[in-house]
Amino acid sequence: MTAAEAPAGRQLVYTLAITEGVRQALQEDPLAFMAGEDVAGAGSVFGIYRGLLDEFGPDRVIDTPISESGIIGLAVGAGATGLKPIVDIMFMDFIGECMDEIVNQLAKMRYMFGGKATLPVTVLTMSGAGMNLAAQHSQSLEAWLCHTPGLKVVMPATAYDVKGAIITAAREPNPVFVVMCKGLMALPGEVPEEPYTLPIGKANVLREGDSLTIVAHGRMIHEATKAADILEGEGVSAEVIDPLWLQPLDTETIINSVSKTHNALVVHEAVRFGGVGAEIAAQIAELAFDYLDAPVGRVAAPFSPVPFSPVLEQTYVPNAERIAAEARQILGTG
Amino acid sequence: MGRRAFVQWERSCTMRGRSDARDGVPIPLCAEAAVANSSQAMEPSEEVLKDLHLRMVRIRHFEEEAGKLMEQGKSPGALHLYIGEEAVASGVMVHLSDQDQITSTHRGHGHLVAKGGEFKKMYAELYGRETGYNKGRGGSMHISNVDAGMLGANGIVAAGPPIAVGAAFSNKYLARVEGRDRMNVAVPFFGDGATNEGAFHEAANMAAIWKLPVVFVCENNGYGEFTPQAEHQAISDVADRAAGYGMPGVICDGMDAVAVWEAAGEAIERARTGGGPTLVECKTYRFVDHVGLRGIGLHYRTDEELEEWRARDPIPQHEQRMIEMGVMTAEEIQAVHDAVMADITESIEFAENSPLPDPADLLNDVYTPTAAS
Ligand SMILES: Cc1ncc(C[n+]2csc(CCOP(=O)(O)OP(=O)(O)O)c2C)c(N)n1
Ligand SMILES: [Mg+2]
Question: Does domain B30-294+303-350 have CATH number 3.40.50.1820?
Fold first, then answer.
């Protein structure tokens, strides 16, 4: 079920959809627990876990010290020995503190042990720029994770998808990173009350079109959709695809779309060089070369740290106008 | 005395004892600050008392105005204010020259002010202007002045101590190469919460085994964000951690600038002369919320606790002492506040009228310009 097919009904903002996803994951499995910095007493600095401590108590909703490496290590050890850890790394930027636990332990244990260890670990973390929080609180580092065999990576950008992603991750017996978008915290959307999952590795087709495929993920799906509106006013029909799962990636949906539209534009908020978009563009070039009318385009952040000054940050983060402009280039209309 | 007993505080400055008179006189940092010939005796001179006061007053007013600017939406992003903790930065910084380095935290304005930061460049940075210390690229959480040895506020908790160890390694190395027997000193500031990160422990160990000129200054304000110390670590004195690395651990009253000055002075002098690192724990408190003045409205501290600590406000306490000692009159003290406020008003105006960065310069200063595309 995609957002488009969700039954019309209850609206929740993105933050409350996160809370509900974690609440239901904790409700449905007594071996699931949540741990992270200020997740319990404060309900997270983003307010996304408010009320969970009251509902589940301090044995299951746990404030940790400021120890990211310890937090992921906790999840690896507890996950390998029968629990279902749901852990929070407040800002995605802080994964730098725990990259060994992520890359060398969490991602590889099952493989290294000949298939013997199961790690039903969910890691929740908040990414993205746009709030003037500067170079160490604004990054989109999903490519680091996607480059590591063993991790599943989902980047939900609607209230519906974020709740579904959390429950899917919690039920999945292997490690999943749910990369959330802080720029979308106030975004409302339809969210069913009951628990539901998302199909792992299945993209969302957000909008159908026939002359250009825009593949965007994270917060950029909304800019891509706006760009498609702009282009529609110019007589261009763009298809917008949100891969949603960056690992495993839904190559098939993307290739089928490009085979139909003959043009492709890949968009993300992370820096362009070596971003997930580079992989998507390469796959399109490999698998749909004969269908392409023009080289695959890419719109992403320039190759710099995220600047503090609002004027610079606005230039830094891609937007609908830049996406539409790049689309015109590809189509030869701009 | 709130939830955090000060029993051990009684044994504060366990390392107390007179250091030999040395000839090096620290260079005053604020142009306005009096020469602080601090390391010669453990009794602060009048100049030192005035210097401590001026640094604290500059921090307090800077921060109060910055907090208002944030709440008015003029200063973008998030500001972690130092209000209440002024005695720590001031008491330490009186002993340091521009050749000594500090590393700071997310709560970094106070450290930069105390290290001689100019209000104009600081407010301009908070405003994201080209005239700011970091040309608007860094903002509050990265504010820095490398020329004066201020190696940056830091958005990553506990990122400072390892960097300070690197600076101290450099200080020791250069003193050897240049044949000096007094070394420059590196001082990492960090919170109680930061000592739960591995980075802190790795830094402490390296500094100790190599006897580097580092003074680890812990600002123990009793909380890491909204989590009380008792819930994030099983010790109440961060200074206890020093024993695990074979370095002295000292506790002092972080609400008393003279107590900090005394404890830090001894540790800094020992570091300068090859005696190796010290961990100085300053028991302090932040009077405002984790971020901004009012914060996000969480009630994790009782009003009673807040009032108890506010009653120990380092600035009126210090002013009272100076009046009693006849160092300054109430009128002279008021004149200091007025002069600082005048500087602030002028500096905010400067910031507001300063040019914004040019978006065309976005990629300047990236180490790898050729990868840009
Ligand atoms: C590596 C890392 N983890 C978490 C955070 C989020 N964070 C910012 S300040 C803070 C609390 C720090 O507590 P403490 O070290 O005691 O300093 P204080 O804020 O009390 O001055 C936390 C958890 C961060 N910035 N960096
Ligand atoms: Mg603290």
Answer: no
